Fold these 4 entries.
Entry 1:
Amino acid sequence: MNRLTLAAPLAFALAFTAPAHAGDSATKEEAMAMVKKGVAFIRSAGKDKGYSEISTKGGQFSDRDLYLVVYGLDGMVHAHGANQKMIGKNLIELKDVDGKAFVKERVELAQSQGTFWQDYKFTNPVSKKIEPKQMYCEKLDDVAVCGGIYK
C-alpha cells in the first residue's frame, strides 16, 4: 500500500512534466502535415482567405516554432505565419548567415521538383537564435507553401 501511495504522486508529476520538454519543437511529420493542410485550405478557401489565415499569428497554421510561409515563384512573400511585415516583400536575394540565397534556391526547387526539403539557417521565433532549419515545401500553382523545423 505504501508503494502505491508514493507511486501515484510520482506518476502524476511525470505525466505533466515530460510532455512539456518532449514537445517543444515541431517534427518533420508535423511540418509536412501542416503544409499539406495549408495547401488544402488555400485550394478550398481561395488565395485571399488562405493567405490571411496562414498569416494569422497563433492561428491554425502556427504551432510552437512551426509556421507556414507562402512564396510566389518570383520570391514575393504572400503569407507569413511568424512575421507579417514580410508580406508583400520580394525576398529573392535574401541570404542566410552563411551567404546561402535560400529564397532563390527555394523558388528554383519549387519550379524543378515541386515538393522538397531545403536546409538553411534562420531565426527561430521561440529561441530568437539563428539555428539550422529544414523547410518542407509544396508547389501550388504559382506559389510554394512551406513550413519548417529547427534542428
Entry 2:
Amino acid sequence: MTLSSDRICLRRWRDEDRDAFAAMNADARVMEFFRSPLSRVQSDAMVDHIRKHFSEHGFGLWALEVPGVAPFVGFAGLAVTQFTAHFTPCVEVGWRLAFAHWGHGYATAAARLAFGYGFGTLALPDIVSFTSSTNQRSRAVMERLGMRRDPADDFDYPSFPEGHPLRRHVLYRLGSRSYFGALSQ
C-alpha cells in the first residue's frame, strides 16, 4: 500500500533502501536524540523489524520518497509502541529523515498522510508522538501538526538509564475529533 500527496510518497520498503537508510542512521546529526548512531547491522535489523510490524499490524513506518528529488529520504508512519508507560498501549506517529532533506516540510506532510490513514482507515481514537524534551525540531513538527502536549504526560523513556540527558520525554497527542474537526474548518 502507498500513501501519496502532490509532494511525497509513503511506500513499502525496498531492499535498495537499505544503503541510504544505513547512511542516514550512521549520521550523528540525524541520531542526535537517540542513544547512538546505528551500525549497518543494527540499521538492517530495523528495516526487518519495520517489515515485520507491517506483517503483524497492516501498517507501519513507510519509506518516504520525494518524486523528482530522491527515491528514499527517510521514513514516516505509524507504529505500535513497544514499551510500557502510563499512555500505552498506543499508536505513535513518527519520522526520521536524512539530514540533506530537513527543512522542506517532508516530515509534516508525511505525518499528515499517516494521520489520514490512522484516523480514516484504521479509525484510531488518538495518535501520540514523543521525543526527548530537548528535541525542539521534532516538537515543532508535532505542534505544526496540531498535536497537543500536557506536561503531566511527560515521562522517562525506559531504555535510557537514570541521569541520562535524553531520558526525559515529552508526549504529544492528537485525537480523531480534533483531526476531523480541523479538516472541516
Entry 3:
Amino acid sequence: MSKFALALAIVAILVGEAAAQIYPVRPISLILPYPPGGPTDAPARIVSERMRASLGQPVIIENVGGAGGSIGVTRVARAAPDGYTIDIGQWDTHVGAIIYPITFDLQKDFAPVGLLSQNPQLLVARKGFPADDLKGLVAWMKANPGKGTFVDQNAAARVTGILMQQSTGTKIEFIPYRGAGPAMQAMLGGQVDLMVVQAAVTLPQARAGTVKILANLSPARSRVIPDIPTSEESGIPGLYASGWFGLFAPRATPKEIVAKLNAAMMHALADAKVQARFADLGLDVASREQQTSEGLAAFHKGEVEKWWPIIKAAGIKVE
C-alpha cells in the first residue's frame, strides 16, 4: 500500500469513528419490507417509538413491499453503512428469501443488530371452512384434492405450504398475495381458505370469531398463547415453521453504531409496556442473550443451517 493510500485509509477510519461518536444526528429509516397491515407493522412501530427516546432521533417506518419482502431488504443491503437505514427482518426476508432471484447475500450483506422476538406461526382457516383443527383439515384435503386454496404471501408461506403437501400427501392451490395484510382481507372476504401467518395478524381476527386457528406450527407451544396445540400434538410431526423478528443494518456499518442501535433496541424490549404489547400480539420477546448483536448472528446462522437444506432438498424456487 502506498503512503497516500495508507493516509486515505487512516482518514476514513478517523472520519468513521467521529461519525459513530456523534451518531445519530438525523432520523433513521426502518424499512418494513411488506405493505401496511401485516404482522410486522405493529411490533416495528412499538419498538421504533421506544427507541426514539434512547437515540434522540425519530425512527421512521417505511413500508417497501414486493417480491416476498426482498425489494425492501435489497434497499437495505445496498444502503450506505452509516446506521441511517436498517430493516426489521424475519425468516422470510433473511432465510427463506433464497427461493427468490435475489441480488444480495443473506449471510454477508448485513450487520445483525439484535433479535426482537420469536413468533408463533399459526395455520388459519376462513370462517365457515369445513375443518376446525389440523386433523380435520388433512381429512378434508384428502377427500377434496387440490380444492383448498392456500395464501402464498411470502417465503415462509410457500415453504410451509409445500411441506404440508409433502408431509400429509395432499395437494393445495397456491394463491399469491403481496403481503399478510391484503391476504387477511381476502380471507375475511371468503376468497381464500387457508394461510400461515404470525399471531399479530391472526389473534385479533380469531378473538372476533372471523377466522379460526387450526394449529401452531412452531416446534413448541407459545408462552403467550399456550392453549393452541402444535402440529406435532395434532398428529403431523415435521410440519413446522419458524417465525421471528430482528433488526439488521447494512454490512460494514461501524460496530459503534451497531452497538448504539442495539442498546436502544434492548432498552425498548426491557420496558414493561413494550413487553405487554408484544404479549398482546402473541410475540415471545427474545432472551437477553439473543437480543445482542452476537446473539442474532448466532441465531441467524442456525436458521440458515437448519432451513436451507430443507428448501434446497424440496426444490423450492420462485422465478
Entry 4:
Amino acid sequence: MEFRIEPTSRQAIYRQLSEQIREAIATGRLAEDERLPSVRELSRTLVVNPNTIARVYTELEREGVLNTRPGLGVFVARLRQELTKKARQQRLIRHVDALLTEAVHLGFAPEDVTGLVAERMNRFRWERGEKRTD
C-alpha cells in the first residue's frame, strides 16, 4: 500500500494519512490483519516526522481501526461493532448532514448528490475481507 502526503494541502499531514488508511481499509486495498509499515519506515518514505506517523497509528488504534502487536508491528484490526446500531446511525447522520450541507453550499441539486453517492459507493467494500485489486 502506498501513501502520499500533499505538502500544499491545508489539511494537516496526520489527517491526510489517517484518512488514506481509513479509505484503504474501506475500499479493500488494506485487508484485515494486514501489516502496515513501521513508524520509522513510513516516516522515511513520506519524509515526515516519526511522531506524526506514531500519532496517526495511536489515534487509529484508539478508534479500533488498527492494532499493535508487540514485536510484530501495526496491523489492520478486525471489524468490531462495539457501538449500538443507534449510536452508529447517529454518528453516520452527523457525517451525512455535513456532506449535504457542503453539497448545498456548492450548489448541487439533490439528484446530483444521490447520483454521485450511488456511483462512489461502488468503490467501497461493504464487508471487510479480501483486498481489492482495482
